[in-house]
TrEMBL record:
Membrane-topology descriptor: Multi-pass membrane protein
Gene symbol of the encoding locus: Mctp1
UniProt-listed InterPro entries: C2_dom (IPR000008), C2_domain_sf (IPR035892), MCTP_C (IPR013583)
Protein name, as recorded: Multiple C2 and transmembrane domain-containing protein 1
A Pfam family of this chain: PRT_C
UniProt GO MF annotations: calcium ion binding
One GO cellular component, as annotated: endoplasmic reticulum membrane
Length: 747
């Protein structure tokens, strides 16, 4: 609902052209209260074509907030309304919806600033008065942007080489010679910089810097439990980015020592909201306190130690905050290829050469991803053909490329099952053991995007410069879905930096969905752990059979080996034995006697779990055994996670010696060789002495160092059997039809 007219005759009926919409978000009036105190913490989102194009700052504890924020949006189709949504910011994970409204752009008079009052409504409660939002808007044509778009449409299927032929310019009457020169300049800009409307909207995704926060400790926090203690953890939030720390049980002075990285999108900085909670099993967690960090007050390229007192609570948090310049994360068209430019390629190779192995240890490598096209995607929308009343399946696909917490999007190709994106994404690699995830979605204007398919590609498995067709998988990455995506990926990295980074903690991802309880997942983790335990039990049975002389030749050989090893045993023989085991498996692999088998057991369990997910989605009304488990869900989820951790630990050790990831196995060989040499030449007492001195003085030397275990950090990079199945590349099968198997339908 707006205060302006219903239509405007100034808009052409066929080609509306390009427009710029200048918006000033003024204030809100009598907004609905969503917090217990009778107030709200409102902020506003603007959406256009289903995509978020602007988000305002949050005004705390105010039902009549004043924003006075300005932004501008490029409009390709003014007949598409602007969607305004107002939320109440909550320090938890889910914000409360206040209300929404639509702004009809065709009702605006061109080149004239208009004050608009929008009444907020909730579709579920249309009669409720939720307040209103006041805006000032100005809609003006963008002639030059329009010409760029027209040039783009004509040049989309041509080669990327710059040409000076005036015949390729749009067929628009030329008023003056200067206009021709201006169009030609625009054409050159388009060819060299690959400007597109969708890219202009997506520049906000390219962050301007990185905010690194180290959560050190809490001091004298408020006691929330009956025993006079708390089980505190911390939540961080910057815009849509969220993190959650680990839980430190039964303490009022917790030591976390965890690091989190945020992307900084605004030049002026932003505000990080921090809340502290007490974990309560089986009921809602207790709120301990909150604080905020205003990044605009901190200088860049410098580490700041902050002691933040908690509001609405007791105690304080100790943080280290560092603002650094942005990493080279970019989006471009195929015509702008960093690795094809000899100068840029030489600079990149020089940046990651062995001579610069100790320069900027966090910058491990460079990744370039070409998202070319997809074929035979699943139809998510069905359009009825008027002539013969037949439904035609279509989708509006776009692609999301993710590397850890770096997430970039392509534009949407509408009504197409064989889209061509022709986009290049570049990322800085912080961990060579990261996994590149490429997901295809179908855009829906009125609801969340539909999943079409996904692939997960470990960086170490990439073959540089090779264009490959990857079969799309389902959400769990356990089986194929319909369609393939064509990618060309290049990875350049420094092996020394990558090796050192392997012995440091992994980067934590944004807060994801809470672990759900699943009897199939519980059974799967139990079977995985049972398989690991059975290896030890079978080894014990084998040793016992030698003692029982079940096979005299084998027992005799074992007895002689026992006498020889015990008589000549030295400590260096332990890493030497592990080194020989790695070498033996390596020679088996290169000689063609690979004893590794594809883990069909885990794959079958994953597929069964997916079938259970489908049944749960469709038969959610069925009750029974699961309802009984929900009563002790916290305990069951904890057991489920512990089983997964124990099983993954055993599988990672096995996969290290099986050469599942050759880079890690070679790294293990280097480490074992060093340990063998050290133990051979240096007495054990000196080694233990150095180790003890290092442990006792570490906190004195580096009071805020993050605690880590190098061996566990190394094993965290080795994939478990479940991850091996998920990262396994599927072969194209022309006869495969996803409709034949229910579990292949991502729904």
């Amino acid at each position: 609902t707006s205060s302006v007219g219903a239509s405007n005759a100034d808009f052409p009926s066929e080609d509306p052209g390009m427009y710029q919409l200048d918006i000033t978000l003024r204030r809100g009036q009598n907004l609905a209260a969503r917090d217990r105190g009778g107030t709200s913490d409102p902020y506003v989102k603007f959406k256009l074509g289903g995509k978020e194009v602007f988000r305002s700052k949050t005004i705390h504890k105010n039902l009549n907030p004043v924003w006075e924020e300005k932004t501008w949006i490029l409009i390709d189709n003014p007949r598409e309304p602007l969607y305004i949504k107002v939320f109440d910011y909550d320090f938890g994970l889910q914000d409360d919806f206040i209300g929404s409204a639509f702004l009809d752009l065709t009702s605006l008079e061109l080149n004239r600033q208009t004050d608009v009052t929008l009444s907020l409504k909730d579709p579920h409660y249309p009669d409720h008065d939720l307040g209103s939002i006041l805006l000032s808007v100005l809609l003006a044509p963008k002639e030059e942007q329009r010409e760029v778009t027209m040039l783009m449409r004509k040049s989309w299927k041509r080669s990327s080489k710059v040409t000076t032929n005036f015949d390729v310019l749009p067929n628009v009457p030329c008023r003056t010679e200067n206009l021709w020169h201006r169009r030609f300049n625009i054409f050159l800009i388009f060819q060299t910089q690959s400007l597109r409307l969708s890219d202009l909207h997506r520049k906000s995704q390219l962050w301007r810097g990185i905010v690194s926060i180290t959560l050190i400790e809490g001091r004298e926090l408020k006691a929330m439990d009956a025993n006079g203690l708390s089980d505190p953890y911390v939540k961080f939030r910057l815009g849509h980015q969220k993190y959650k720390s680990k839980i430190v049980p039964k303490t009022l002075n917790p030591q976390w020592r965890e690091q989190f990285d945020f992307h900084l999108y605004e030049e002026r900085g932003g505000i990080i909201d921090i809340t502290v909670w007490d974990k309560d099993a089986g009921k809602k967690d207790d709120f301990i306190g909150r604080c905020q960090v205003d990044l605009s007050t901190l200088s860049k390229e410098q580490t700041h130690k902050l002691e933040m007192p908690l509001e609405e609570g007791e105690g304080c948090l100790v943080l280290l905050v560092t603002l650094t310049a942005s990493a080279a994360v970019t989006i471009s068209d195929l015509s702008v290829n960093s690795l094809e430019d000899p100068k840029e390629r030489e600079e990149i190779l020089k940046r990651y050469s062995p001579m610069r192995m100790f320069h900027n240890m966090k910058d491990v490598g460079f990744l370039q991803v070409k998202v070319i096209r997809a074929e035979a995607l699943m139809a998510a929308d069905f359009i009825k053909c008027v002539s013969n009343s037949v439904f035609i399946g279509k989708s509006d696909p776009f692609c999301v490329v993710e590397l850890n917490n770096d997430r970039l999007l392509t534009h949407t190709v509408y009504k197409n099952l064989n889209p061509e994106w022709n986009k290049i994404f570049t990322f800085n690699i912080k961990d060579i053991h990261s996994v590149l995830e490429v997901t295809v979605y179908d855009e829906d204007r009125d609801r969340s995007a539909d999943f079409l398919g996904k692939v997960a590609i470990p960086l170490l498995s990439i073959q540089n410069g090779e264009q490959k067709a990857y079969v799309l998988k389902n959400k769990q990455l356990t089986g194929p879905t319909k369609g393939v995506i064509y990618l060309e990926i290049d990875v350049i990295f420094n092996a020394v930096k990558a090796s050192i980074r392997t012995l440091m903690p992994k980067e934590q991802k944004y807060i994801e969905e809470e672990n759900r309880l699943s009897k199939q997942l519980l059974l799967r983790n139990f079977i995985r752990m049972k398989r690991c335990v059975m290896v030890l039990i079978n080894a014990a049975y084998y040793i016992n059979s030698c003692f029982d002389w079940d096979s005299p030749p084998r027992s005799l050989a074992a007895f002689l080996l026992f006498l020889f090893v015990v008589w000549n045993f030295e400590l260096y023989m332990i890493p030497l034995a592990l080194l020989l085991l790695l070498a033996w498996n390596y020679f088996l692999i290169i000689s063609g006697k690979d004893n590794r088998q594809h883990d069909t057991v885990v794959e079958d369990m994953l597929e069964d779990e997916e079938e259970e997910d489908d049944r749960d989605d469709k038969d959610s009304e069925k009750k029974g055994f699961m309802n009984k488990l929900y009563a002790i869900q916290e305990v069951c989820v904890s057991v489920q996670n512990v089983l997964d951790e124990v099983a993954s630990f055993g599988e990672r050790i096995k996969n290290t010696f099986n050469w599942t990831v050759p880079f890690l196995s070679w790294l293990a060989i280097v480490a074992l060789c060093m340990f063998t040499i050290i133990l051979y030449f240096i007495p054990l007492r000196y080694i233990v002495l150095v180790w003890g001195i290092n442990k006792f003085t570490k906190k004195l030397r580096s009071p805020y160092a993050i605690d880590n275990n190098e061996l566990l950090d190394f094993l965290s990079r080795v994939p478990s059997d479940v991850q091996v199945v998920q990262y396994h590349e599927l072969k194209q099968d022309p006869s495969h039809s996803p409709s034949k198997r229910k579990k292949n339908n991502p729904g």
